[in-house]
Amino acid sequence: MLPELGWMPRLAAGLLALGLLALFVARAIRKDRREYARFRRYRSTARRQAMMRRWLIESAVLFGGSSVIVLLLTWPLVGPLLAATQALPPIAWLRDALAGGLGIALLIGAGLGVALLTLVGARSARREGGIVMVGDIAALLPRNRPELRWGAALSVNAGVVEEALFRLALPALLVVVTGEPVSAFLLAALVFGALHAYQGWVGVLATGVVGLLFTALYVVSGSIGLAMLVHALFDLRTLVVIPVTVYRVHEVPGTVLFPKPLRASIPDQT
What we know:
Blueprint: H1 7-41, H2 45-86, H3 89-97, H4 101-128, H5 145-178, H6 181-194, H7 200-221, H8 224-245
Helix pairs in contact: 1-5, 2-5, 5-6, 5-8, 6-7, 7-8
């Protein structure tokens, strides 16, 4: 059961949530209108790596730091929020249905299915000279061996700090305002999607759906570690596996000053 809170904690939580939202939106606008637009024009791998390093540090500090601060303030609510959400009839039924080995088997099967589809898609993409991409993300794909390391670091970092913020910290803060668990998780997932505005509206919608799936995984499993792992693997698929299997960028040395831009098989939608 969620504890009853007075208007003062709700007001304080609301102000903190608005402050964080303003900070995140300002960063998203800056990244969308300035940094990512500039990054797409880069041909020098040194410049691309410098921007990747900057994004990694900013994400770790902003998202990681925000999650730590919010969790320090709301930690007593994290467990009750999860328990209250899991007690809802549809989620309780799903948890019961997936109890035992069935849930693990389905998770393993889903992982193997995604891996198989990735391999099949990679073979097809190599023949066609490009891969279908959802949203404006082609510029993010590493183009040589050194950039692959930054892609891997960005993926792992995103899996940890973004899940800590959008599945643990922000819902615990928002539930103080809303007083209801489902809306808190939904709002956090929507913010997660909106912060990917630099990928275009298609990317925002796709990321929002993925955020909801990560939320469902956390709520149903009760394990934030599992959500972090799946998130990191999902990003590694995009920023490491696809560049290696489709474009073979691991064969491109970092001494190439102007790596060729990777091409999608259909134009990105912005």
